[in-house]
Structure formats: structure tokens, C-alpha cells
Give the backbone structure.
Amino acid sequence: MTRKQRRLTLIGCALVVLAIAAGLVLNALRDSIVFFSTPSMVAEKHLGPGKRFRLGGLVQPGSLQRGDNLAVTFTVADGSATLPVAYKGILPDLFREGQGVVAEGALDASGVFRADTVLAKHDENYMPKDVADALKKQGHWKDDYGAKSDNRPGAMPSASAAPTQGAMR
Amino acid sequence: MIAESGHYALVLALGLALIQSIVPIVGARWRDAALMNVARSTALAQLLFVAASFAALVTLHVTSDFSVANVYENSHSLKPLLYKITGVWGNHEGSMLLWVSILALFGGLVAAFGNNLPLSLRAHVLAVQAWVASAFYLFILITSNPFLRIANPPLEGRDLNPVLQDIGLAVHPPMLYLGYVGFSISFSFAVAALLEGRIDAAWARWVRPWTLMAWIFLTLGIAMGSYWAYYELGWGGWWFWDPVENASLMPWLAGTALLHSALVMEKRNALKVWTVLLSILTFSLSLLGTFLVRSGVLTSVHAFATDPTRGVFILLILFVFIGGSLSLYAWRAPALKQGGLFAPISREGALVLNNLLLTTACATVFIGTLYPLALEVLTGEKISVGAPFFNFTFAPLFVPLLLAVPFGPLLAWKRGDLLGAAQRLMVAGIVALVAMALVLAWTYGGATLAPLAIGLAAFVIMGALCDLAERIALFRIPLSLSLRRARGLPRATWGTAFAHAGLGVALIGIVCETTWNSEYIGSMKPDDVARVAGYQLRLDGLNPRQGPNFREMVAQFTVTRDGDKISVMTPSKRNFTTRGASTTEAALLTRGASQLYISLGDTSADGAIAVRIYHKPLVLMIWWGPVLMAFGGLLSLSDRRLRVGAPKPAKAAARALQAAE
């Protein structure tokens, strides 16, 4: 083979691999990304049952109920709307009433959010970023949510590429 | 006093780095050896001052000097000594100080052991190293000074985030940083080569040991972090495809590609321009990782404080270094001479395929990690890209890579014989098919992909062994002769075999853990028995206990199998009073390569406790794999031919000639 042919083979191979990768990426982006919503966004967008998304908001104080066999229900609120959530399993260490939470799952036919994952992404004085941004945007941000942490820059949980909080499945 | 000295030492280190950034370059332009040699002394002095600064911060943490903000926020007088020390880098400021300390360490190592480098190359390399160092010293001094004092010192500290109070923090971040920052050396070499406009096989020979060293640390660092997440977070996951993990995976993928392309360059003087680009990209990805973790732009399980000044500063560093080095590359790379020719089917060809697949896989991880950020900036829409995305893109690219791995070492340089290689891999192929059939028969009706993956893993492992067997002519010549040959094999050959086999070992672990993991989740009262994968776990009782800076509730489980008592497991739930935070300490019972895993949930009013029990078959192989890979890397590193500072045979021969005259 001449130098030119060899180079063409190489470039051809590279293009094939890149095309396959691009196809895989586009396909996966269509099917496997999950959108983030707050309860009021859920109401606005009329999300149908079965469509997976991430729900973020505050756990309504007094709404947590533990059922049999690790079943729990609680309500997620964002100041203007609420959404009931059902989950089965062990809640993260940092799950508290009145605190921010992010859950992943889908609505069922009766409008209850069936979560299969509850994420704890904050410590005792830190709001999940998604939730904080959404609350701010909707004008429900109360200064005292972030006040504690704002007074102490650098006092946040920090890890150098280390696990801090995990997802619970 | 100590805090001020530490701060001052850091300022001096910045001053030295600035001198090191300019003087050696000027020296190289004027061909002035004395000016070029300035790089060496400043690099060593810089290391000394940064080390002093780091030691100062450690001392402050150990002595619990709460008048220093960093100590107050991350330490507690009752904390065990180990965590007082590791707490130094368990926070933003301290971990950046660790970052620059390691950068200075590598600069110092090049200065100390780079005697065999041409003077101007060493001067350039150390100058580039100093540019990076200066940028990060400025970053620390301006935005993240760890030595700030508090006006009214409190009596007690706020304690370290409880999740980080673990031996993992002692090992994982330093390892990871040694890897991340180690790639700065190959970056500096690449930029130096571009500045000099000259690059040859010797360049690759000098770069490869440094790259290999960084790669070994990064491999171990990632594996360690994964194991830490596995036992500390309490739900048995070992890889989350979390942006912060991806941030460490991307430099690893690019670095692995770099190792292989540098090999082609060293042996065949080809792929020069590409290798330089990979060196730049690898360290750029390390910088990107630093940006992602340190700026707080990500919402991730590694959620980090959002402080825009820091983010913007690191983003600036990122732009200057990545943009600058890539522009330099675009400008100077065409001037580098093209390398040798090779056929598509050859060792070089296989290594090109390796590079192609690794960099493409790296690109998919890059897209998956940054797409949500880009989308949020552009449209304000929030999405999350989770495990399914990476499973669908990353896995399909790794399958052909793994299939090709055993062929690589069996192909000859320049022009290989694919059919011949396939024949020599016959045994590996047969073993793989048998393994596949056995697994399929054993788990009949179960997962279909898993047996295929196990077969692939068996092929990779056996392929590595086949390569060794081929080289020592096992069973074709008398065994004693084969053994003698085995001893004579270059260590790098053993290294390749170990590293490649490690890939297969990790794959077996990953497949077994994800496919045949069994779990029990429920609430248990004392004397209840849970049955998981043939084991009976009886909850004996719950006992409170007082630790140094926490209180814990310890559950005791007796594990039996077929009536025989095997062991006692004691998972616990810890409550850290200072931060009001609780952590779950999982209990692990290792049986061969498999593990039983118990973690606790909440106690309910009636005295029952929520319990999660997993049986994870062959899970430990996930981490044995990377350890094998790192061991293989270590073997290669110890190979005479690669040893840093080893006298070059040509020189020795020349000297012998002179002596003869």
C-alpha cells in the first residue's frame, strides 16, 4: 500500500468509529436523560404518568409517614404546589422534614410520584443546587434557607473527589 | 506564627515559580547554560517552600489551632490524629495546597533526576511546569488561602464532614492527585517540544516513565475512591457515573491512550504529532477535572460550595492553559517532522486502534458530563445524564477494545500477521467459549449478556497468558528452558500481560456484581433472621456505643451457613454531635472474592431497624483488576530500558570505545 492508501485506511477507520460513537451518543441522549422538575413545574407541564423525571423541592414538615415494610410517603413542596411521593426502601441519612430533597421516578395513574431513588445531596445547612435555583426563580427563596451557609463561606461539605452523599436505591 | 510562616512560604514559592517561568526560557534563547540551570535550583527550592507551607498547615490541624479559619471549619479537638492529618486535604483550601505540593514534587523530581535530559529541554520543561504552578499559587493566595485567621478564635472546631472521617481520605485524594498532577509532566514535555520545535523517539523515552508513574497512581486512586464509595455510602454502589468520578476517568482514558501512543513513538518514531496532542489533552482533562470539582459548578453527589470567584479563576486558568497549549500546537505541530510508515495490520496499527477507541470513549464521557452543564447555560433547562447514558455509549466502545487487546502484543511491528496472531490466540478463544458455555448452562434462563461478557473477560485474561506462553515457548521446548526464558523476558512484557489481564479481572467482577447481586431490604427486630444467597443472618441485638467524637448504634449479626457459624458482623449508625450529621458504617464480610454487606437504616418506634443486606458475588475482582493493572505498570516502570536516568547503551558503548582507544 502507498502512504496515501494507508492514511486513507486510517482516516476511514477513525471516521467509522466516530460515526458509531456519535450514533450511540445521540441515541442515548434521546432515551436516557432525565429532566428536573419542581411540583409547580409538574403541574404546568402536565407530565403524564410513566415519564421519568427528577422531582426536587422541600419535604413538607409533618408529611412523612412510614408504612409497613419500609414503605414511606411524604409530600414535596416548592411554595406554590405540592406533590405526594411514595418510596419503598431506606431513606438517606440526611433526609429530613423541611429540608431539600431530589427524588427520581415517575408519576403513577393516580398522580402520586413513585420514586425509585431518593438523593441526599446536601448536609444539614445546604440546599441541593437544583432545588435552591428553582425556588429562587419562583420567588419562594427565603433568605434563611441559605443564610447559615452564606455566613460561612467554605464551611460547606467538601470532598476532594471523594464521596460525600450517595444516592439511595 | 506557624500560619503566617506557612503563608509566607507559599508567597516565596510563588516568587520562585515566577523566576522559574521566565529565566530558563531566556537562557534557552541565549543558549546560556547558567541561566538554564536556574530552573533546576528554583524547582528544588520551590519544592522546599511548598513542603514547608504544607507542613505548616498539617501542624495547625494536628495542634487544633482554631484561630485559623480552615482548622476551625474542618477540625475538632477530639478527632483522632489520623483524621486531623487527613482533614488537611478534606476541604477546598487544603486540597488545593496538596495539589500544588504534588505539582512542586514532580517539578523537583524532574530537576533532581532529569540529568540525562538535554539542558534546553529540561529548562523548557521546568519553565512550563512553573507556569502551571504560578497560576495555581496565585489561585490559592487570592481566592483560597488556607492560613486565614479568625479575629475571635472559637474554643472548638466544627469538625470534618463525618463521611470523610475514614481511612479512605488518607489514601484516595493524594493518590488521585499524584495521578492528575503527574500528567503535568507529559504536558510540560509536550509544550517544551513544541517550543523547541524538535521532537524525536528519545523524547518519548523520557516522557514515558513519568506518564506511566502518573497513570499508576491515577489507576490506584480511582480504584481506591470507588472502593471507598462502596463501603462508606451504605448502598453498595461502586461507580455512580457521577461528574466528579468522570472527571477522574477522562484523564485516565486519555492517559492510557497516551501510554500506548508514546510506545509507538519510542519504538517506531511514528505518531509524533498525535502523541504531543494527547499529552496536552490528558493534562487538560486533569485541569478540567480540577475545575469541575473545585469550582462547584456541578450538582452531584459530590456537591460542592458555590463560590463564583473561585470558579471564574479556575476557568481562566483552564482557558489560558488549554487554549494556549492547543494554539501553540496548531501553530507549531506542522513543523514537527512526520514519522515512519506502517501497515494497518501491525503492532502500530493495533495501538492506533487502541487510541482511537480510548479517545472516543473518553469523548462520550466528556459529552455526558458536560452536556447538562452546557444545556443549563444555554437554555436553562435542567437535566441529568445518568448511568444509562454511559452504559449505552461507553460499553459498546469498550467491547471492540477488549476484543482487540489480546491481539496487540502478538502482532509484529511494522507489518503484522493477523491470521498468525489469531492462531496463537486459539487457546484463549476456546477457553473463552467454554467459560461462556459453562456460565450460560449454570445460569440457564438468566441474563444473556452476562455470559458473553464473562467469555470476553476470559478471552482477555487468557490472551495475556497466551502472549506470555508464546514468548517463552511453553510446552514446545523443555519446561526448564521455558522457565529460563521467562526469567529473561523484559519486565515490560510481564507488565503488559499483568495490565491487560487486570482488565479482564475487573470485567468479571463488574459483570458478576451487577448481574448476580442479591439483596434483602426490610426491617428487623432482635432475633429475626434474614436469608440472603444461602446465608442466614440473625440480628442478635442493638447496642449503643460512645466513640471519640460520635455516638453510635451498633447492630450485631451472627452469620451462619447450613447451620455452621461463620462470623459476626457489626454494622453501625454513627451520630456526629458537632455537625448533627449521621453516617452509616457498613459491615463487610469477605468470602473469597465475594462479600456480604450490611448497612443500617432508621430505627422505628417499635424497636425494629431497617436493614439492607447484599450478597455481592466476586465483587472484589472489580478492584483487584486495577491493582493488577497498576502492578503491571510498576513492572514496566522497573524495566531497565525505561528506568529514569539509566545510562543509555549507546553512550556506554561510546565510552567503552574511548577507553579502548
